[in-house]
Design goal:
253 residues, alpha/beta, TIM Barrel, 8-stranded mixed β-barrel, globular, binds guanosine-5'-monophosphate, binds manganese (II) ion, binds sodium ion
Length: 253
């Protein structure tokens, strides 16, 4: 209850910021996109991790308001990039409750229109578990979202309850290989085989694939050798504030 009240206050008081983590094409070292990751800077507690407050926001329903704020901020960020001629994709995490919300599609339509963002720049990240509950409803919601022109990513792929036959029925565009599979490459041969299999399957299904949690050059080389070129992780950059992006570009180029 304490944190619920704090969260309500924080939303009113605008204590949140979004950090952006680059997604890099490892062949060209160009930034192709960013994942938007929310941060709570509490006036006395300091930074509070989303792993702590997103579940509470989700349980209390505050995620709907907070999630709407993230969508708006991320779209406005994408427009600022476009104004600098940077055609980057922006990945936005949706929580289960947001995804199920009947207002999500009209809300996103409104934000796209008001911000002026190109809808095709937006990638919405969902997890497998969010799709597996009510499959027909999920498919219908995905079709409505895709009709707005956005793309759909499956986040943390391989960690949830996934069914390959369902995966084919869902109109999704991108698989994000979970960082738990990437982290022990090249020591763990099982993880290497799983990662290679996910990439191969994505190719067969004509899905794009992004590897998460990439921290070493060996991991990047392994991924390249298995035809996965878009990578995200501390090797290139942690999530950073918009203010710190110029320094990141300077480092990459
Ligand atoms: O950036 P970090 O590793 O601290 O993120 C922790 C978790 O919080 C991740 O699972 C991430 O998907 C989630 N998260 C970060 N930002 C958002 C957000 O804006 N909305 C939702 N629903 N989850 C987020
Ligand atoms: O669940 P999701 O994939 O959205 O979570 C993203 C989280 O992973 C963020 O909290 C982000 O800070 C974290 N993260 C991003 N890159 C790396 C990395 O290279 N290593 C580790 N350990 N965590 C990472
Ligand atoms: Mn994510
Ligand atoms: Na993930």
């Amino acid at each position: 209850l304490f944190i619920e009240n704090e969260l309500r206050h924080a939303i009113r008081d605008k204590q949140f910021v979004i950090h952006y983590q680059p997604q890099v094409d490892s062949r060209t070292l160009q930034v192709v996109g960013y994942e938007a990751l929310i941060r709570w800077f509490h006036p006395t507690e300091g930074m509070i991790s989303p792993t702590k407050f997103i579940p509470i926001a989700e349980a209390t329903g505050l995620i709907v308001e907070l999630g709407a704020w993230v969508l708006k901020e991320a779209c406005e960020f994408a427009v600022r990039l476009a104004n600098q001629n940077l055609k980057n994709n922006i990945s936005i995490n949706l929580s289960a409750r947001q995804f199920k919300d009947a207002n999500l599609v009209p809300l996103l339509a409104k934000i796209i229109k008001q911000s002026g963002v190109e809808a095709k720049r937006l990638h919405l990240e969902l997890t497998e578990s969010m799709l597996m509950g009510h499959v027909e409803a999920a498919i219908a919601q995905l079709h409505q979202l895709k009709a707005l022109g956005v793309s759909i990513s499956i986040d943390d792929f391989g960690t949830g309850y996934s069914s390959l036959s369902y995966l084919k029925r869902f109109p999704v565009d991108i698989l994000k290989v979970d960082r738990s599979f990437v982290k022990d490459i090249p020591q763990d041969t099982n993880d290497m085989e799983i990662t290679a299999a996910i990439i191969a399957m994505a190719q067969k299904l004509k899905l794009n694939v992004v590897a998460e949690g990439v921290e070493t050059i060996e991991q990047i080389e392994f991924l390249q050798n298995n035809n996965c070129y878009i990578v995200q992780g501390y090797y290139f950059s942690p999530p950073v504030s918009e203010h710190d992006l110029p320094a990141l570009y300077a480092k990459l180029n």
